[in-house]
Amino acid sequence: MPIKKSSASDVFQRKISDFCDMRLKPLLQPRSFENIKGFMIGLIVFQSRPPLRAGRVDWQEIASLCGMDEEMSPEFKRAAQPGFDAILRWLGVAKTSTARKSPVAAKRPLRVPAKPIPAQPVRRALAS
Question: Where are the domains of the chain?
């Protein structure tokens, strides 16, 4: 039977799902866990970035979107941060790989003609 090749998105979704099961499940109630896991997988499916504020993950917005205001502990944030970082890195890779790149001709290194340097220093004769 031929093996079906998975897309990069499917593989990454599984990785994030496993990450959530291992790192986040022990810290959250079942409902909150399903909400945050679905949220993170949704970011991958729709190739969208997590909410950011000043270049960092906006935990208040995530708590509001996932309905987990009271469970947003510092321990949870520390555990979830690597997952959001991985999603941001993956989205950065996905955007550059899908963007069209113009073909660039191979360039040879630029050579600048230089004066030959003698092995022995040249001594000038003093005219007296």
Answer: 8-93
CA 127 to chain centre: 71
Residue 55, CA distances (Å) to 46, 51, 52, 85, 88 in order? 20, 9, 6, 11, 11
Where helices occur in 5-119 by DSSP H, the ranges are: 8-19, 30-45, 59-66, 74-98
Beta strand 56-57 with 52-53 is antiparallel
Contact 62, 51 (CB under 8 A): yes
Structure confidence at residue 120 (pLDDT): 67
How would you classify residue 109: left for phi > 0, otherwise alpha for psi between -120 and 50, otherwise beta?
A: beta
Closest CA to 40 of 54, 28, 98: 28
What pTM was estimated for this model as a whole? 0.68
